[in-house]
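Appendix B, example 12.
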Amino acid sequence: MNVKEYISSGILESYASGELSESERADVERNLAQYPELRKELSLIEETMEAFFLKAAKEPRAAVKTRILEAITLRSVQSVVSREQRPTNNEPKSNVIAFWKYATAASIVLAFTSTFMAYNFWNNWKETEVSLLQLRAVNEQVARDYDQVNQRLDAIENEMKIVSSPSFARVVMKGTANSPDAMASVYWNKSTQESYLSIQNLKALAQEQQYQLWAIVDGKPIDMGVFDSATGLHKMKSVGNVAAFAVTIEPRGGKPSPSMATMQVLGNT
């Protein structure tokens, strides 16, 4: 499973908010048990959602709260008065009018408070939504870095197997008069004719130039491929019955025959 794509699908957010069916939840839980990265992502999502709801659950300002309580209390009192002192046709209706004034005022206050809280909730949600997007971007970068590290670890493990294998002989190529401090090695398997180049010390070249590895077979140079000065183990062309290996500097892309005047390192098998 591609962990990065699974995280980007948004299914973990749906799981955390309880929007999935039983079968979907069971599928997510199986993946959570198998992939630690998903459990870590879910924890971050749950923490973010918890922070959002705590932030959104704000009480109204003290003044607003007081006004609402006063309006509700007044409405209750006036309701009792209206039942006990119902006006006759000859009595003034000031009590009834006052009650409706207060009731209207209380309704306005409640409407204002509800609107304020709804806006505050929406604003906090937008802020949290941005935080979730930022968090997802960070997680995607972590997933990419994780993949790159895994690939590099696999490459290092493969290199160690070659370097430590008794099937591969190490041929050290030392610097020539052109570059006395230069050094490189070839790990060569005589049986399978596989060869790997390891660079210890080769100078950086101009963009239009490359190094080229040669095998001396029956007194003739055989092209084994071009390479740059990057460290690491480079797989080169296969060759058998090698008497020596050498590296020259050639135009980028290499040449069919070596430029002996630019030879950098040389080593006999």
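The longest helix spans residues 94-164. Helices lie at 3-8, 11-16, 22-34, 36-56, 62-84, 94-164.
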